[in-house]
Design a protein that fits this description.
Nucleotidyltransferase, domain 5, seven-stranded mixed β-sheet, six-stranded mixed β-sheet, 25 strands, disordered N terminus, glycerol kinase activity, Probable glycerol kinase
Length: about 525
């Protein structure tokens, strides 16, 4: 009996839905200590209907959230933790991924088009303005132009657009029976329809893409009560935090001071640096984005972001497409068995190149192969690729800010790979610092939810934030070797550029087709 009564002394708990590109997680934290008490994770299937297309099933995404919630609540009950102590839920999500649904039936009208998707490349290439396939506006335009159900729902005023956060919050707060159609400033700032200065939808951008503003969600701060859970084990609990995944990681890493930065290694790789209350425009290929706005009456903070499309996704590719590993953890063993790529370089530009190049016509390339090269060297080259891409965005960030980072704070699933962390320190020539609790994205969403007005169980005052324990990886190779390898990588990147053209190519049957 003593055990259960001591459990009750935990005090308020806050939960987070972390809906990522490759999986969904639900996590529960102690609001006073930030300790992770329990969690559950479910993988998400991706479909690739055509080359360059990436989709996910909106129903599966929603179902995975309910499943993770139920399983986590079961685990907490087994630990004698009273789930009625959960006071709030935060949402964090893969950004830019685009959904349209019917507000009367509650059904999605097409699969979610994932941020990595390249189907809008021709739209982008034919546009005089510097667009990219990455953002939601071009995906939404594609849906309106190519999916009859979407076009009709827009005409009959039944369509709702949203990124993953909007879809989840709408469904969880009641769906067609009074669901709340909203998003937060961080997710809105990734659509290309949002004015990051006025913090609202931009009528001119909406007109440019010919998107009716009535289908857009209401923009809210990242920390306020949006609505209450309407079903499941946590019915009645407020959803009161919402941050795009990279903003959530910035908050979870406590990067509240101007100049603080973090790099997240997930499906892609995202380096964000807090630039304070003013948006800073990049001259080196980085994006200016809203970092967070932690309360209706609080100011917005901005960040510079370096985005890399393929990081953890390269591991999935080696596993699912090439079959050279069975599990993600095998990659580290394979790479460590040789300790070098032996002159092999791998540029995983599967979805073109993002920052600092913004080159959608680039494609993946492996070069420097010899008869000696084997799958272990390829595994090592894949890990190096993640590190070289991070080095490119870190260099751009240092040039933009004029103040070089002296160490890099890291988080995300891939940081459990110790070889990767050591390689990253070697290639950057600065220490890499990894927190002992790697779930910083979910933690950030939980902090925003727990700090919301009307919940107020999580203090964000600097003196109240718990000290994070971490591990540091120091560079172990000389800078000359690092520079040599980096220069070779840059050479490989140039080889990957301008690969996809709109020139006719023979498809082997005597007829020309277009690539």
């Amino acid at each position: 009996m003593a055990a259960s009564s001591s459990r009750v002394m935990l005090g308020p708990l806050v939960a987070a839905i972390d809906q990522g590109t490759s999986s969904t997680r639900f996590l529960v934290f102690n609001a006073k200590t930030a300790e992770l008490l329990s969690h559950h994770q479910v993988e998400i299937n991706q479909s690739f209907p055509k080359e360059g297309w990436v989709e996910e099933d909106p129903k599966e995404i929603l179902q995975s959230v309910y499943e993770c919630m139920e399983r986590t609540c079961e685990k907490l009950t087994q630990l004698n933790v009273d789930i009625s102590n959960i006071k709030a839920i935060g949402v964090t999500n893969q950004r830019e991924t685009t959904l349209v649904w019917d507000k009367e039936t509650g059904e999605a009208l097409y699969n979610a088009i994932v941020w990595l998707d390249l189907r809008t490349q021709s739209t982008v290439e034919n546009n005089p303005n510097s667009l990219n396939t990455y953002f939601s506006a071009v995906k939404l335009r594609w849906l309106m132009d190519n999916v009859d159900e979407v076009a009709e729902a827009v005409l009959t005023h039944r369509a709702m657009f949203g990124t993953v956060d909007s879809w989840l919050i709408w469904c969880l707060t009641g769906g067609k029976s009074g669901g709340v159609h909203c998003t937060d400033v961080t997710n809105a700032s990734r659509t290309m329809l949002f004015n990051i200065h006025t913090l609202d939808w931009d009528p001119e951008l909406c007109k440019y893409f010919d998107i009716p503003m009535e289908i857009l969600p209401k923009v809210r701060s990242s920390s306020e009560i949006y609505g209450l859970m309407k079903s499941g084990c946590l019915s009645g609990i407020p959803i009161s935090g919402c941050l795009g995944d990279q903003s959530a990681a910035l908050v979870g890493q406590m990067c509240f001071q101007e100049g603080q930065a973090k790099n997240t290694y997930g499906t892609g790789c995202f380096l964000l640096r807090n630039t304070g209350a003013k948006p800073v425009m990049s001259e080196h290929g980085l994006l200016t984005t809203v970092a967070y706005k932690l309360g209706r009456d609080k100011p917005a903070c901005y960040a510079l972001e370096g985005s890399v499309a393929i990081a953890g996704a390269v591991v999935r590719w080696l596993k699912d497409n090439l079959g050279i590993i069975q599990t993600s953890t095998e990659l580290e063993k394979l790479a460590a068995s040789v300790g070098t790529s032996y002159g092999c370089y791998f540029v995983p530009a599967f979805s073109g190149l993002y920052a600092p190049y913004w080159e959608p016509s680039a494609r993946g390339i492996i070069c420097g192969l010899t008869q000696f090269t084997n799958k272990s060297h390829l595994a090592f080259a894949a890990l190096e690729a993640v590190c070289f891409q991070t080095r490119e965005i870190l260099d751009a960030m240092n040039q933009d800010s004029g103040i070089p980072l002296t160490q890099l704070q890291v988080d995300g699933g891939m940081t459990s790979n110790r070889l990767l962390m050591q390689l990253q320190a070697d290639i950057l020539c600065i220490p890499v610092v990894k927190p002992s609790m790697p779930e910083t994205t979910a933690l950030g969403a939980a902090m925003a939810a727990g700090a919301a007005e009307g919940v107020s169980v999580w203090s964000l005052r600097p003196e109240d934030l718990s000290e994070v324990t971490s591990e540091k990886f120091e560079p172990q190779i000389n800078p000359e070797e690092s520079e040599f390898r980096y220069a070779r990588w840059k050479k490989a990147v140039q080889r990957a550029m301008n690969w996809e053209t709109t020139e006719p190519i023979s498809n082997g049957n005597g007829r020309d087709s277009f690539s």
